[in-house]
Amino acid sequence: MTTLFDVLVIGGGPGGYIAAIRAAQLGFKVACAESKSYDDPKGEIRLGGTCLNVGCIPSKALLASSEEFEKISHHAADHGIKVGSVSLDSKKMIGRKDDIVTKMTGGIQYLFRKNKITLLKGHASFVGKTAEGYQVKIDGKDQEIVTATNVIIATGSKARHLPGVVVDNVLVCDNEGALKFDSVPKKLGVIGAGVIGLELGSVWRRVGSEVTILEAMPSFLGACDQGIAKEAQKLFAKQGLAIHTGVKIGEIKTDKKGVVVHYTDSAGAAQKLECERLIVSIGRVPNTDQLALDAIGLKVDERGFIPIDDHTCATAAPGVYAVGDVVRGPMLAHKAEDEGVLVAEIIAGQKPHIDYNCIPWVIYTDPEIAWVGRSEEQLKAAGIEYKAGQFPFAANGRALGIGKSDGFVKVLADAKTDEILGVHIIGPNASDLIAEAAVAMEFKAAAEDIARICHPHPSLSEVVREAALATDSRALNM
């Protein structure tokens, strides 16, 4: 006889653990299966998935540490603060990051206990379906089979690797290896100028690495509004990040000295990059290959994603749902969380809704980059008439006071209705400022609505208001 649950969540990452907690709040008997320990010192299973263990949280911890190092090394004098020689204890920096991760994973385990969620330690795969529900095998220290009326697949994604290139996470690394360097490489190569490549490249540049980023796409940050992308490329080049677009990667060799990357540049000329370490950051692929989906009649598409109903995250198997990185849409932790909540509430008979156009994106470089809604390029392609308002941080007293005046805010609004269609930010605290824009868009606000709201002075948020005013040529401080 197997244990019967109302809801079984497969995967303990942002989508999974949030889905489990919300389902438990709604009164269901819930279990969550997780198999990864993420190099836990005691070999214990760790909740939080890639995001918490080897992604979002540890990378932000390292970004914060490296930013402090750069501030003291290069910007303290601007404030009249004299310092002596500055050195980096990279092991302590990595240790701080690990401590934060451990604290966060322990916090999720506490939430599981608080909400009476059963943690199933082991790899989950489907066995079949009975009259009681779906049977799922849990391969851990002991093997067991559990049955669930509803199953939520939230197994996340893994780093995509280059064909024929061995990622040992010592010389050639993906995101996991790049978060635990035991020393600062003199020369660091990064393949891929996406979010992960830019953030990790920034971490190690700040603390002394000479960083070269190779990007296959002809344009930089193609997913961004191109006004933002051009500003970002200019500022990153000024900082010392060498970014080459339109390259074609060739042979990659490793030896005792490091890594050699042969590539062809955008002009077709053969080039060679020699570096101590290489980060491969060319995207991610969904973790769907070991779920035995065929046992319940499910198939993945050509890219490995599980097809779902766009509004409910339901798969073709009744009572089985999929959220986060294993389904269509951006691979963002907060998108996975919202989908996890949505599914739990749908199972409870509620009618939740997600507007995917209102999901914000963030790149935690310095300056930060964030956006929500559509870009100018997307609006032009769709034939939508719009008006744009832009305001620089250089004209904001708070930005000048904290010494972070690079960048700007751009607000795009419908030319006829004034409804906000997109907001794009490059500048200090963009990750926090974008939340106002997301709220405004969720409530179908007009640019005039933001323009009429009193913002605190002096604050960075005033730049958002000024950009909204600028859509009607009414910026007050420029």
From TrEMBL:
It catalyses: N(6)-[(R)-dihydrolipoyl]-L-lysyl-[protein] + NAD(+) = N(6)-[(R)-lipoyl]-L-lysyl-[protein] + NADH + H(+). InterPro entries: Class-I_Pyr_Nuc-Dis_Oxidored, FAD/NAD-bd_sf, FAD/NAD-binding_dom, FAD/NAD-linked_Rdtase_dimer_sf, Lipoamide_DH, Pyr_nuc-diS_OxRdtase, Pyr_nucl-diS_OxRdtase_dimer, Pyr_OxRdtase_I_AS. Its cofactor is FAD. NAD(+) binds at residues 192-199, 215, 283. The active site is at 457 (proton acceptor). FAD binds at residues 60, 155-157, 325, 331-334. Coiled coil: none annotated. Residues 5-340 form the FAD/NAD(P)-binding domain. Binds 1 FAD per subunit. It comes from the Bacteria. Residues 359-468 form the Pyridine nucleotide-disulphide oxidoreductase dimerisation domain. Disulfide bonds join 51-56. It is found in: Cytoplasm. Pfam families: Pyr_redox_2, Pyr_redox_dim. One of its GO terms (molecular function) is dihydrolipoyl dehydrogenase (NADH) activity. Its EC number is 1.8.1.4. Keywords: Cytoplasm, Disulfide bond, FAD, Flavoprotein, NAD, Nucleotide-binding, Oxidoreductase, Redox-active center. NCBIfam families: lipoamide_DH (TIGR01350). Belongs to the class-I pyridine nucleotide-disulfide oxidoreductase family. The active site is a redox-active disulfide bond. This is Dihydrolipoyl dehydrogenase.
